[in-house]
Design a protein that fits this description.
31% of the residues lie in helices and 12% in strands. It is α+β, with helices and mostly antiparallel strands. Helix 4 runs antiparallel to helix 7. The structure holds adenosine-5'-triphosphate (ATP) and magnesium ion (MG). Keywords: ATP-binding, Kinase, Membrane, Nucleotide-binding, Phosphoprotein, Serine/threonine-protein kinase, Transferase, Transmembrane, Transmembrane helix.
Length: 393
């Protein structure tokens, strides 16, 4: 089973850099081992499982790493399987996703897809370190991102750590936008995530966003299993054309991104049956509020220092453009990046082109330098936990 040619698909992802918009720190995305000052999370592991881009783990490796998939190691469970905290024998902390039993999954296809996605690197994407295929078992091994996910910070378990400031929210959404722009516009073939939602945006200690599960929908889509239904995305985030007709392209991700952006601005769930009827659907509520000139009222009341009117308008304008019912009219993700970064409001047309060359470039992952760690970020990114303002906590 391990004899497939690891290099045979190494051209499956071509690195595109037409105009310098995107710059991967791992230019040798096609099978080269990256050179960097930071030790590889895979260093010290037995060579026999080394694939050039990552590791093929045995089930036993991962049993050891997760204390036999102990309940105590469970981080959480989603639509695709259970995620465990683990530690590799070289000390690297990982998250191991044990996929639901998917007997119908074409083995070769799974390998090829995993390898393709394993090559994709960006500072704002969770890194896939390796995988395990054994019998009917399919597991994916990711870098561990330790500071919760956006859903938990906005509505759940991380709230007792404090509330995210406006700046933190915009930093997280901008990072997310950059990673999506990379998946959609910088690699070939492009990757459509299909399940963009706040729980799939993980957060690191410096409040950088890391998108997880990219490529997972594609990986699992080939099989004829109950997981396939999962590929349809998550209620509340799915673009209307995708929900209605199954038509899918990267503009569906743009719509879902718009929902997450709105979630971050308002602190509300995309669909919340605990609210009065006109407020149950977040997107409809926003349109109603904007239509009746009450846009200023939609900001999450837990944000202590409110954004300036210009910043709020910019964020809401970007949201509305992403949520356009006509998918052709939605912006591309690199346009979204520029809209979110723009200092002026309304966003000047001329400035758009000029910024194109900058967008994404400085944020793409560099293996030659540390992430832009700035511990002074922390105080401005969080405010102390205080009484809950949500009506239906
Ligand atoms: N690489 C990772 N590092 C740390 N925690 C992770 C990692 N990947 C996932 N998690 C956490 O594990 C839990 C389960 O994630 P999972 O992706 O299975 O579910 P989900 O995101 O809620 O839904 P979906 O199945 O649609 O992705 C979540 O709390 C998530 O934040
Ligand atoms: Mg997930």
């Amino acid at each position: 089973m391990k004899d497939f040619d690891v290099n045979s698909q190494s051209d499956s992802f071509t690195y595109l850099d037409k105009d310098g918009t995107f710059e991967s720190g791992d230019k040798g995305v096609t099978g080269t081992v990256h050179q960097n000052n930071v030790p590889s999370p895979l260093s010290g592991l037995p060579e026999f499982s080394h694939l050039g881009w990552g590791h093929w783990f045995t089930l036993r490796d991962l049993e050891t790493a997760t204390n036999k998939f102990s309940k105590d190691n469970v981080i959480g469970e989603g639509g695709y399987g259970i995620v465990y905290r683990g530690k590799l024998i070289n000390g690297t902390e990982v998250a191991v996703k044990k996929l639901l039993n998917n007997l119908g999954q074409a083995e070769k296809e799974f390998q090829v897809e995993v390898e393709a996605i394993g090559h994709v690197r960006h500072k704002n994407l969770v890194r896939l370190l390796g995988y395990c295929i054994e019998g009917t078992h399919r597991l994916l091994v990711y870098e561990c991102v330790n500071n919760g996910n956006l859903e938990q910070w906005l509505h759940g378990a991380m709230q007792h750590h404090g509330y995210l400031t406006w700046e933190a929210r915009m930093k997280i959404l901008l990072g997310t936008a950059k990673a999506l722009a990379y998946l959609h516009e910088a690699i070939e073939p492009k990757v459509v995530h299909r399940d963009i939602k706040s729980s799939n945006i993980l957060i690191d200690d410096d409040f950088n966003a890391k998108i997880s599960d990219f490529g997972l929908a594609k990986l699992l889509g080939a099989g004829k299993s109950h997981i396939t239904t999962r590929v349809m995305g998550t209620f509340g985030y799915v673009a209307p054309e995708y929900a209605n007709s199954g038509l899918l392209n990267e503009k569906s991700d743009v719509y879902s991104f718009g929902v997450v952006l709105l979630e971050a601005i308002t602190g509300r769930d995309p669909v919340d049956y605990g609210r009065p009827a006109p407020e149950v659907n977040l997107v409809d509520w926003l349109k109603m509020m904007v239509g009746s000139k009450r846009a200023e009222e939609v900001v999450d009341p837990t944000i202590e220092t409110r954004p300036s009117t210009a910043a709020l308008k910019r964020a809401l304008l970007t949201t509305l453009r992403c949520l356009d019912p006509d998918s052709d009219k939605r912006p591309t993700m690199s346009q979204v990046v520029r809209m979110l970064e723009s200092e002026e409001y309304p966003i000047p047309r001329e400035g758009r082109r000029r910024r194109k060359n900058q967008a994404g470039a400085e944020e793409t992952e560099s293996h030659n330098r540390k992430s832009n760690t700035d511990s002074s970020d922390r105080p401005i990114l969080m405010t102390k936990a205080r009484s809950d303002h949500r009506t239906n906590a």
